[in-house]
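Entry for the shared binder. Reason: the reviewer on the internal report wants the predicted structure included alongside the sequence.
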Amino acid sequence: MKIGYQIIFLIAFFCVLSCSKEQSNNSKLKKTSVKIDYEDQDYTMSLFDISEHLSFTDIPKTVPYGSEKIIKYANLILKDSIIVMHSFKPYYISFDEQTWEENPENNNTWQLYYQNLFFVSVLNHAYYETKEEKYHIAAKKYISSYINKHSSKDIKSCKYSWDDATASFRTLHLLQTVANELDLEDFDASFIKKSFDHISNNLYFMVDPTKYKAHNHSIMVDRSILFLAKVTSSNPDFSDKIFNLAFERSMGNFNKLVDDSGLAKEHSTTYHLFNHNLFQKVFELIGLDSLNTASRLKVLKKNDILLQLVKPDLTFPLWGDSQMESLSPHLIERFGNDHRLQEVHDGKQLSSIVSFVNNIAVLRTKQVDSGYVALFANYYSKTHKHHDDLSFIFQTLGVDILTDQGYYGYEKEHRPYLSSIYAHNTTVLNDSTYTLGKKNQYSKLTGYTKDDEVEMIKAEHNMYDSIILKRTLYYLHPNVIIVHDKTNDSLATKSLTQLYNFGELANKSSLNNKTAQIEFPKNIIVKLTNLNSQSTILEKESYRSRIQYTKKDTKQIQFRVLGNEVTSVLEVSSPKYKSPVTNVSIKGSYIYYTKNGESKKVAFLE
């Protein structure tokens, strides 16, 4: 019995001790206040009230890593090897030598993420998951160093020090560290106060209307402001002001950034996904009930875009400034566990989807060959836009035949080429490119027809000033594509050059007269023939980038003709096709071909 009483006594003792520490901590929280300077007025809040609304797991996550990579990268950072982003190699610099002016890659993206303390967020997550104080101590050390270096809004270590996007991410990373600090029994009040002083400076740039534009940076900014409003809601004089500002801006921005089909107007698969993730948190913070019916419908239609673009191998096109993306369980979860996406992931084949709203045409065979053609005539602005008007890609039998090339990264060596007209499957007029951003420019789909085995898509653009370039593409299921290009001005058009960029699996190639033959694995042979009476054929070495800051060599075929009209036929042969199209020819106003032993024809509309 004595032992039992002793155990009860010990339990009671520790309960009293724990309650005493908690009361002492709460007392300190209530006695300690922080201030935020906004519009030349100081707003104060107790740390107790801040702690009631600040939860680490509620803070929008910026790092895309799972637990294993977070710990791996955090351990490297503890050894002075800074991981600014996983796309870049670790940068070793001792803490005492750090000036915040570093840019070892001579790269804008590297410097921007260095300045927004992205690597500190890795430390924050490592501490939250392990509760090992070494990670939190390192995070505080780097934050204190940054704040000391940038003690006022006028002090910069580079052009991104007080950039709006930098400030938005840095605010979240500071709040993460503060949340971890508040979990300690003996928190450092001076560090928290210093952090909120710096957040005040960040807020100054985030609310600046001159920096607010209709692109994803503004969504980042509003997301951070809305979360800061939640954290500071104990002072409604302040929180309501910034909440209302961010609410009005983000709702206006949503309608500017998302078209009526649900597509983000940033000309990129990757940025459609990023845009969705940002707005998802924004809507969580403002409440979906605040959205009108039209906006709610747009939110739902964002999922439709994934159904439109996804390829048979569950990857997405490297359209615009995109990197490799795939329809994974994680992505499906992020898009609300839409059962339609899950069905595609589980093997359901989709039909063709052609949208005259977003001006993207995706043609599919729905057969075992899994044929997929996507043509892009989408233009809203220069944001993440490539010179890819009328460009198309082609996948069949699980192999990328014609591809988009990605963007590598935001640097000056590779992106200029990869975003240019010369890296896309389109047509060059008069051996020159065009300039984006001119008044009244357009790119659009103009027609679509379909029967059981032939689909035809028409598109045009006027990017070359007064000259309109028109493209008609025929897809003869499952293995033949005919491309006809023509301008509306025979006098101003001196030449047209069709470009065809083949996937990195293309190996052996040969040229014969006006035909190029490209060999792929799986006994796939591609024959590309120009039908003009006179043309020049050229093979060039090119490259593509599926993953940031990496590239792989590819092959490009060019057909150059004098005049304002060019027609070419791409034919894929493989023993895996059950009913391939053969014997293709164009005579007069008809396309003739053979399928299943039967001679057929379809109207050829120039």
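Summary line for the report: Residues 369-603 form a domain with the Beta-galactosidase; Chain A, domain 5 fold (CATH 2.70.98.70).
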